[in-house]
């Protein structure tokens, strides 16, 4: 199942020419992932505050810039869970312009599950199950 998150391009997101500055696509993708995790019923705050404290952190990200987004565009960030391992999750994300459906950016993101001291940790079974359900719904 694909999670969809809308984003409006504001002046602060653009360069002097009114085109979205490249690093802002990472911010857009992060917001979409955060909302997907929230909608799954996972509290990132609780993960941080429980026991040793854990969090998802971006391990790697690959971006393919296809077309520019511009000031005042309404965008849609689509996120799909591709796989889940013992301590990592693979996601595909696409950023599209809503008006015409043009794909602007593709992202491949690997999240690691870590302790606040930076050590890898196993993703808890209940969290794994929520993500696994998202994978099975996608098929």
From TrEMBL:
Keyword entries, A-Z: Hydrolase
Top-level division of the source organism's lineage: Bacteria
Matching Pfam families: 4HBT_2
Gene Ontology MF terms: fatty acyl-CoA hydrolase activity
Protein family per UniProt: Belongs to the 4-hydroxybenzoyl-CoA thioesterase family.
Protein name as it appears in the record: 4-hydroxybenzoyl-CoA thioesterase family active site
Organism: Paramagnetospirillum magnetotacticum MS-1
Lineage, opening ranks: Bacteria, Pseudomonadati, Pseudomonadota, Alphaproteobacteria, Rhodospirillales
